[in-house]
Amino acid sequence: MAAKAWSYSALSSFETCAKKHYHTRVKKDVKEEESEQMKWGNQVHKALEDRVRDGVALPKGMEKWESLLQRLLDRPGTPIAEQQMCLDKTLAPTTWFAKNAWARAIVDFAILDGDKALALDWKTGKPKEDHDQMMMFAAFMFHHYPELDRVITGYVWLAYGNRVTTQAYYRSDLPKIWQEFLPRVKRYQIAHDNNDFKPNPSGLCRKWCPVLSCVHNGRS
After folding, report:
1. Are 82 and 88 in contact (CB under 8 A)?
2. Along the chain (220 residues), what's the average pLDDT of each consecutive run of 10 residues?
3. Orientation angle between helical segments 132-144 and 174-194, nearest 10 degrees
4. CB under 8 Å to 171, separation ≥6 — which residues?
5. With CB atoms counted within 10 Å of each terminal CB, which end of the chain scores lower, N or C?
6. Are 29 and 44 in contact (CB under 8 A)?
7. CA distance 79 to 75
8. Distance CA 104, CA 169 (A)
């Protein structure tokens, strides 16, 4: 089966365990239950989107992030909430549901300011030192906005005092970024083309994996 347009989350899902990815995202015969942490994360993302895009007041329990948002909105440039970006196989921008859609990304918050931009991703979990996702988002922004020369990306760790971990990327970094991602995407697409999704057993299998039919699950 041909792979649909990939995203960072789909690629990450595949690399974590191709078999789980197949059952939860491709065949969809197994539903992954939404944890309380996931529900909270979705609620936070929606509230921050509404605040940035429409000026809707943050709901009770989230007011503590108002000062952060206001500081961001006071920066020079044009703020954008939940920026959808899509590329075709030639890395040219296309529309989200286009037949030639090859890769998709959504940036939680961005500010465009001339030849530079800020791109942030809201995180409600524990801080991690992994900038792959934001490196990918920087590439998307360079392709969608040809005037950009620099994109500062960052994770905002909302549960940890709004700690921000940032990384700057320049247009000259584009070849290096794609050298990192294209081999990974190729493995993803080959697995879909050949319908070959091998399990990747780990210590999370028995406690967390919803694919009960997998021999590594141990709960069937």
Report:
1. no
2. 84 93 92 88 96 95 95 96 96 96 97 98 90 94 98 96 94 97 96 93 78 73
3. 110
4. 142, 148, 149, 150
5. C
6. no
7. 9
8. 19
3-state SS track over the chain: CCCCCEEHHHHHHHHHCHHHHHHHHHCCCCCCCCCHHHHHHHHHHHHHHHHHHHCCCCCCCCHHHHHHHHHHHCCCCEEEEEEEEEECCCCCECCCCCCCCCEEEEEEEEEEECCEEEEEEEECCCCCCCCHHHHHHHHHHHHHCCCCCEEEEEEEECCCCCEEEEEEEEHHHHHHHHHHHHHHHHHHHHHHHHCCCCCCCCCCHHHHCCCCCCCCCCCC
Q: What is the pLDDT of residues 107-126, one digit of tens each?
A: 999 999 999 999 999 999 99
71 phi and psi, to 5 degrees?
-60, -40
What digits encode the pLDDT tens for the residues 74-115?
999 999 999 999 999 999 999 999 999 999 999 999 999 999
Q: Closest Cα to residue 62, out of 80, 75, 49, 78?
A: 49
Q: In angstroms, rounded to a whole number, what is the distance separating the alpha carbons of residues 2 and 82?
A: 28
